[in-house]
TrEMBL record:
InterPro entries: AAA+_ATPase, ATPase_Atu1862_pred, HerA-like, HerA_central, P-loop_NTPase. SUPFAM superfamilies: P-loop containing nucleoside triphosphate hydrolases. This is DUF87 domain-containing protein. It holds the Pfam family DUF87. It comes from the Bacteria. Residues 24-191 form the AAA+ ATPase domain. PANTHER family: HELICASE MJ1565-RELATED. It comes from Parerythrobacter jejuensis.
Length: 485
């Protein structure tokens, strides 16, 4: 049986072929920014090899369900099944060699990750007699194999990393050939990316992604600019299943692609302003009512023995409101105290966000604070503010600095506030040890790159002195100082 397919054409219309048998043994990594043609490439590969090998597609955005209309893939809507049923479906896919698309678009992100991990683990754990060859395509792989801990639960992160590592590292002996596609190489776990021997690198603009892509392709770093100049649908290909040397390839056409979206310009409707205004504003109340959510069901009637006679209801309501406000204020003070103590502990800023968050929740439980005081997103910003060391400033100055840093990203907020606080106090820069503490790194190189990044964002201005000194200026600090004066 012929095992080669044509993935596209190189310069001069020379066809570029892909050896599917070799791919089953060596795996594939695809990288490309949004709009580079990454999904088109995966679709071309799936279409051309549909009659050769079983295919399993993990589809978080619903991009590949149209394969069912042309090639007979079975679409599994993950939203309609329980976790045990998902695992049973995976086992049956291996047993009957069915090509399937696991559609995850109806689930929340963490549910998508857990569902795909359970499905992949069930594929991996299938009985030996069902170890038939299969291509397993995972789109948006940075979600399922993140390089760093994000905002998902720790048990979810471990589950999905284990599933993806099994697929890419140990799947070959079980007939599973992983094909992972990602928008950001820097966000994909290195132990997952390193197991691929074939690469298709599309357009990317960030230096860190270009350098990693050039390293994987065996190119010198000064040649990495070539990746930035790639057009949509053009990729650099390398690997034993494609070519022993990097080759530029333009991906061929597909048959099952979606045609509902147009990325180009199209003329606006030819309508006078009055007509358009009427379309937008007429019968607006009826539209709101039609799309309003259904009212919640009425609560059950209380039992007679549960009814408490009302005595002075207004006084009771006022007292309960005041007591609740006082309780909330006390709880918030306890949370703030725990947060400040954690942020000022030695070495705490050098830990990952997930470890910091788990320590925070543990201390809240030990302090008998019920519930979850804040989610991961709120915690990261609150921890950055607490670790910036603003307690030495008065309340007015702290409030002004927080307003100045309102639009700053969480990952650089703490060092920015530390630099701004030092500038507000008339210092040229915070101490190196203080900057290293709030940023969570003792590496001079990382600190230097941090300052360069803040300057590129327009948050600070670096002034190098001839004598080797350095001053950090913060736009907007002068206005705060003048307002105080």
């Amino acid at each position: 049986m012929k095992s080669e397919i044509t993935i596209g054409h190189a310069t001069g219309d020379q066809p570029v072929t892909f050896d599917i048998e070799e791919l089953l043994a060596t795996r594939l990594l695809v990288q490309g920014n949004s709009g580079s043609g990454k999904s088109h490439l995966l679709r071309r590969l799936l279409e051309e090899s549909a009659g050769m090998v079983q295919q399993v597609v993990i589809d978080p955005e619903g991009d590949f369900t149209s394969l069912a209309d042309h090639f007979g893939h079975v679409v599994i809507d993950a939203e309609a099944y329980s976790p045990p049923e998902i695992e049973a479906l995976a086992r049956r896919c291996r047993e009957h060699r069915a090509s399937v698309v696991l559609g995850l678009e109806g689930l929340e992100v963490e549910q998508q990750i857990r569902c795909s991990a359970q499905f992949l683990n069930a594929l991996f754990d299938a009985p030996r007699e069902f170890w038939f060859p299969a291509l397993v395509v995972v789109d948006e792989a940075q979600m399922f194999a993140p390089s760093v801990a994000g905002e998902i639960a720790e048990d979810t992160r471990r589950m999905t990393l284990s599933a993806m590592t099994n697929l890419m590292c140990r799947g070959r002996k079980r007939g599973l050939a992983g094909i992972v596609a990602t928008q950001r190489l820097a966000k994909l776990a290195k132990n997952v990316a390193a197991e691929a021997s074939n690469f298709l690198m599309g357009r990317t603009f960030l230096d860190i992604d270009m350098i990693r892509a050039a390293d994987l392709l065996g190119m010198e770093r000064r040649q990495a600019e070539r990746i930035r100049d790639l057009e949509r649908g053009h990729f650099l290909a390398l690997g034993p299943a494609i070519s022993r040397r990097p080759v530029a390839v333009k991906i061929g056409s597909v048959r099952s692609g979606q045609v509902t979206r147009n990325d180009g310009l199209m003329p606006l409707p030819d309508m006078p302003r009055e007509g358009m205004e009427a379309l937008l504003t007429s019968e607006l109340a009826a539209d709101v009512q039609a799309h309003a959510p259904a009212p919640p069901p009425a609560p059950p009637r209380p039992k007679v023995e549960e009814v408490v006679p009302a005595v002075e209801p207004q006084a009771i309501a006022a007292r309960s409101t005041a007591e609740q406000a006082e309780a909330d204020a006390t709880r918030q003070m306890q949370v703030n105290t725990i947060l400040e103590e954690l942020a000022m502990e030695e070495g705490s800023t050098f830990q990952s966000s997930s470890v910091q968050y788990q320590n925070f929740l543990t201390r809240c439980r030990a302090g008998r604070i019920l519930g979850v005081p804040m989610d991961m997103t709120e915690f990261r910003r609150a921890f950055a503010i607490a670790s910036a060391g603003l307690e030495r400033l008065d309340e007015g100055r702290r409030r002004q600095l927080l307003q100045l840093g309102a639009g700053v990203d969480d990952d650089v907020l703490a060092p920015y506030l530390a630099i701004a606080a030092a500038a507000l106090e008339g210092k040229t820069a915070p101490e190196d040890e203080e900057l290293a503490r709030v940023y969570g790194s003792s590496s001079p190189g990382r600190i230097r790159r941090l300052l360069d990044h803040l300057e590129k964002l327009g948050l600070i201005v670096i002034r190098e002195e001839f004598g080797g000194g350095r001053s950090l200026l913060v736009p907007g600090i002068d206005a705060l100082s003048a307002a105080e004066g």
